[in-house]
Design goal:
Elements (H helix, E strand, L loop, with lengths): L10 E4 L9 H11 L9 E5 L5 E7 L4 E7 L14 E4 L1 H8 L18
Parallel strand pairs: 1-2
Antiparallel strand pairs: 1-5, 2-3, 3-4
Length: 116
Amino acid sequence: MITGLPPGVHVYLAAGATDMRKGYGGLAILAQEVLKKDPFAGHLFVFRGKRGDRIKVLWYDGQGLCLFAKRLDRGRFVWPAAKEGVVTLSPAQLAMLLEGIDWRAPVRTWRPQLAG
């Protein structure tokens, strides 16, 4: 699990499907050429496979590229409908995504009441 992201780190989700056979180099090239972001800036880049049950996260930790991969036993990772482009997530949304939760519209269990 990816926890404790430093302040200022962005999470970029690559819309559309990615070939999950790609490794460090192939995903870094996608981040640079397709997403127009620097893969060595310390930000996280999230890619999803065609079937939707696999995900890879690429980031540079200051010493080298790191790659986190996850495959769901059941279900699919929630992904934007867009076929290309990039979506920015908060660290909390990334945590929900990695747990298989719909990060787009989470439902709170309690809402504060307005003073009236």
